[in-house]
Amino acid sequence: QVQLVESGGGLVQAGGSLRLSCAASGDTLSHHALGWFRQAAGKEREYVAAIGWSAGTTYYGDSLKGRVTISRDKARNTVYLQMNSLKPTDTAVYYCAAANFYFDYRLHQTDQYEYWGRGTQVTVSS
Prior knowledge:
By secondary structure, the chain is mainly β. Helices cover 0% and strands 52% of the residues. Strands 2, 4, 5, 6, 9, 10 and 11 form a 7-stranded mixed beta sheet that branches. A 4-stranded antiparallel beta sheet has the order 1-3-8-7, with no helix packed on it.
């Protein structure tokens, strides 16, 4: 079992930045990938980025590509999502998820992930 708790969301003006955090606890993460997804009101959950916990290999979706950086701190068991040049269309609930023994070509798919956090709201005002 892996427990995930997101934080760092909030209200930001267009063009601003936010750093989201996802604190993981429970089982060791050595074989996991941690991912970020987002879901805007009335829309499907959308892949943002993922990172392999062991090697730190990063993967990015198209939704925020070029404006987002995913990283992890092994000592803190935490994954970060740095988002820059935010737009009102980035407004969504952002979720952290963990996938065990994953296939990297499937990290954009929600069913690859066994564990999910409750999400943190990001609101970008114009």
